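Request: Mind sharing a record?
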Amino acid sequence: MGIPEKASELLSLEGKVAVITGGASGIGLGTAKRLAEFGARVAILDIDDENGVRAVSEVERLGGKAIYIHCDVRKAEDCRDAVAKTIDSYGRIDILFNNAGVAIRKNAVDLEPDEWDLALDVSLKGQYLLSKYVVPRMIQNGGGSIIHTGSGWSLRGGENAVSYCAMKGGTLNMTRAMAIDHGRHNIRVNCVCPGDVDTPMLRSECEQLGGTYDEAYKESCARDRPIARLGTVEDVANAVLFLACDMSTWVTGTHIVVDGGGIA
């Protein structure tokens, strides 16, 4: 027995356009591939031009459609132009995955003011700016889905991660506020909260803390969670797919934790 036609319709993103920030690698790239696989045309936004172009090629090799747009999400002009370029290419925007972020592993004493600004600008300000310019386009379309990348540390604190915890906690409450503001426009706003996922960012965090990103380190990340393995970008991408498609049309203002039970 095959997959029921109704199930395929609920998961389908055919005809929809997704904007993905931080899309050149890691969770952003994994999600670009997954959404394209289910029919979305994707605009990959990043400041890493080399990997951004490579990301488009990877999506296209899977049979999907993608464009790359250089965008520093801290800058209003870049965000506004990226939205305009997406509209010029695809005519609409239905899904926004606000995924760009940086992880600086320091406490409040050791963290420098410019590092604080960088962390919050890339994540919180970037999420605000892209939303500012995308929401009016979604209203024109009759609705849409915005997904922010939070973290398990959106829900609790962590060691040597004061700016990261601040921005991810802010992301979660901004999600709730935006859902309240834009529900009347049929725009759903949700947050996906990953745990430790095997990405370049996790490698960077390990090295910042003086560790070696090897199998022993990965095992240590997995050890204390019920599903004892490191997360994959596909694990998170599947949650984003759910929040982007018609399986979740009455889901808004909330979060999905994808961490193998790490904060259970």
About this structure: The chain has nine helices and seven strands. The mean pLDDT is 96. Residues 188 and 249 are 8 Å apart (CA to CA). Strands lie at 17-21, 41-46, 65-70, 95-98, 144-149, 187-194, 255-258.
